[in-house]
């Protein structure tokens, strides 16, 4: 898991690693009050890509990243200011990057 935050950057822009032909899923997540929503989004996207049941990944994502910590690190500040951070982790052959602006990208990693 990688956490990257650049407080000097005023806009979130994709890292070189996020611009890839292996991109299989991209969306903008709206941070809410349910801390499991982001986890469900990621698990469902990977399950759809692999054409398997999401149940297969529920326990695996908890081994790759702490969902509550992931949400706390990236959710906007109490005044609504979006964070410039980025969280990267790997799950079952996929590289997941989540940005403070809500951008979620999932890349298939080379075998």
Which terms would index this structure?
111 residues, alpha+beta, 5-stranded antiparallel sheet, 3 helices, 29% helix, 24% strand, disordered N terminus, Halobacterial output domain-containing protein, HalOD1
Sheet with most strands? 5 strands, antiparallel
Structural class: alpha+beta
The string of secondary-structure elements, in order, is EEHHHEEE
Span between termini:
19 Å
- Helices, by number, come to 3
Unreliable stretches, pLDDT < 50, 5 or more residues? Answer: 1-14
Strand content: 15-25%
Pfam families: HalOD1
Protein name: Halobacterial output domain-containing protein
State the gist of this model.
With 111 residues, the chain is an alpha+beta fold. It is 29% helix and 24% strand.
């Amino acid at each position: 898991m990688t956490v990257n935050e650049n407080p000097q950057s005023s806009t979130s822009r994709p890292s070189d690693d996020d611009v890839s032909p292996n991109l299989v899923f991209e969306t903008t997540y709206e941070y809410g009050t349910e801390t499991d929503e982001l986890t469900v989004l990621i698990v469902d996207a990977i399950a759809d890509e692999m054409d398997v049941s999401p149940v297969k990944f529920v326990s695996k994502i908890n081994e790759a990243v702490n969902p509550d910590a992931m949400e706390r690190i990236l959710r906007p500040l109490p005044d609504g200011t979006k964070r410039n951070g980025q969280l990267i982790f790997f799950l079952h052959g996929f590289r997941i990057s989540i940005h403070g602006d809500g951008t979620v990208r999932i890349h298939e990693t080379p075998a």
